[in-house]
Amino acid sequence: MVWGYLYRRSSDSRRQHPSADQQRNLSGKPLEMNHCLPEIVPEKTRSARESAIAFLPDHADFEVSPFGSGHINDTFLITSGALKRPVVLQRINHHIFPDVEALMRNIRLVTAHLEDKKEVYGYRILKFITTTSGKLLTGDPEQGYWRAMELVENSFTHNRLINQTQAFEAGKALGAFHAMFNDFDANRLTPTLPHFHHVGKRLAAFHTILEKADETRLRKSLDLISYTQEFAEKVQAIDRLTDSNQLPVRVVHNDPKVNNILFDASGKACCMIDLDTVMPGCILHDFGDAIRTSASLAEEDETDLSRCGIDIGLFESYLKGYLEKARTILTEKEISLIPASTQILTFTIGLRFLTDYLAGDAYYKINYPDHNLLRAKAQYAQAAAITVKLPEMQRIVLTLST
User: Fold this and answer.
1) Other C-beta atoms lying within 10 Å of the C-beta of residue 340
2) Going by fewer Cβ within 10 Å, which terminus of the chain is more open, N or C?
3) In whole angstroms, how far apart are CA 71 and each of 91, 100, 173, 260?
4) What is the pTM of this model?
5) By the 8 A CB rule, do 221 and 306 touch?
């Protein structure tokens, strides 16, 4: 969610190492927080250079340059003729992830497990570099915590899926990721962001905010508030089944949108990135959020609500790829809830936007007044459009899963 030295490539481009200003938000999220770290300045570059020495003590002659345009983490590219490949150096925003040790411990467990299964897995795996003392982090609470990793070369991301082949590849990548952890005890991972996708917890926060929200914002939100209350019961099915142990707890990526999947020059998905939010959870949350972003017909803040919805062809292709890799690990109950997961996750994100709007835009970065309100409207419109498509989606799931 919060990191990712992501490579951006437009559909008509063949660039493999885009410049900083051509890359998307390095947070790994479509939106960023208002309390993010400020723009990278020369002092931070100097700090990065000092921190790099902890990871590359034998390579004093190296170059440090800001990498990407993210605001949550500070990210730099380290290059040197003495290095086999460039290194990505990043300062983690510990205001968002207070327990950076737990975050990196989760990543270490996950990447080590994938390395053990790399021949079966078939995808490239993020490789973190340790300090001379064998640690994955250097730094302190005041100066921040830094980590380093090898650059995944000759790869790029798509910000949106433009055809069914890409959707199939993205689905396979997520399915393979999930399948590799079928024999891994998810409770070994620390919930660094507890209840991240839990609708019930999000609704509780929403009702708390309602009691103290600004009257003007309340008036502008009346339709959305009514919609929230109307659908509140219908969108808690997955949470209730998970809470009652009727759905398995698995290793969940928690931010599996398409630009957290690297593709190679042949068009094949080659690496899952942005592992900061890997935690125990329900993999239906992953699938639902993947479809919410990957198969969407409109932008997340679309102004023409009639355009909001999902591309059924992309949904089917993504699901086909996903099931090719993950069908054998899924329970019948999980499979039956795949369509609902897309509706529920879309509603949940809309609820988060609405809650933040009523709270005075305290969490998500906005580009103009009422931006979060518009985002909430667009996500709720997409959730409503998905509701209409649920019977068709169920038929597709039944056909592909049997």
Assistant:
1) 20
2) C
3) 11, 18, 27, 17
4) 0.85
5) no
Give the domain ranges of the chain. Answer: 20-150, 164-401
In CATH terms, the fold of domain 164-401 is Aminoglycoside 3'-phosphotransferase; Chain: A, domain 2 (3.90.1200)
The CATH code that applies to domain 20-150 is 3.30.200.20
Separation of alpha carbons 136 and 265, rounded Å: 30
